[in-house]
Write a sequence for this structure.
């Protein structure tokens, strides 16, 4: 989430639109550059090369700084077998390993998500044998995000399909579906928010 995207979220747009609009604006800016400068160059080849360059420049620079990742606009999920109990209320369970660097990278994003959407119930399920492994996550996460230890680590590893972190969405005590880290993008977030509003 960058500052540009945050502006559109603050205006009340969905997470998907807030992610998409900056890219569209960069394309529009490229057209504006082309329109502004197209009559200033006479030589056709130079004109074509220059127009292509300045037309693509805004999008290319923005994309280089804020690339589009594989799961940003897709909503690719899987349906794991439910091997443990889940809360009755809609819950986003972030399944993590204590020593997984990608799991720790989710902390800042989940803190931002709960700040923007305080009605969501998010919990971290740490796949470990001892409660001592919880403190690293507890110390960095927003107080509104619960951190629990998995009741049966083997079952949680199976539900996560062995990939961590894994985000599992449940409602009324039943697993709806789950996302691997690479596929947990803005469309998944919009789905979760829409489900919490029902």
């Amino acid at each position: 989430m960058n500052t540009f995207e945050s502006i559109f979220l603050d205006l009340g747009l969905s997470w998907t639109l807030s992610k998409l609009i900056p890219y569209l604006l960069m394309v529009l800016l490229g057209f504006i550059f082309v329109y502004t400068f197209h009559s200033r160059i006479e030589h056709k080849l130079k004109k074509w090369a220059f127009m292509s360059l300045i037309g693509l420049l805004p999008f290319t620079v923005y994309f280089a700084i804020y690339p589009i990742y594989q799961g940003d606009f897709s909503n690719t999920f899987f349906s794991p077998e439910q091997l443990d109990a889940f809360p009755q209320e809609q819950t986003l369970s972030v399944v993590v390993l204590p020593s997984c660097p990608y799991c720790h990278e989710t902390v800042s994003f989940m803190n931002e998500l709960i700040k923007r959407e305080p009605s969501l119930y998010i919990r971290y399920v740490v796949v470990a044998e001892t409660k001592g492994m919880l403190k690293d996550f507890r110390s960095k996460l927003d107080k509104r995000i619960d951190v629990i230890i998995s009741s049966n680590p083997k079952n949680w590893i199976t539900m996560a399909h062995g990939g961590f972190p894994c985000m599992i969405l449940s409602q009324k005590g039943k697993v709806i579906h789950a996302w691997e880290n690479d596929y947990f993008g803005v469309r998944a977030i919009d789905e979760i928010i829409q489900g919490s509003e029902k």
Notes: Strands lie at 91-96, 122-126, 146-149, 166-171, 174-180.
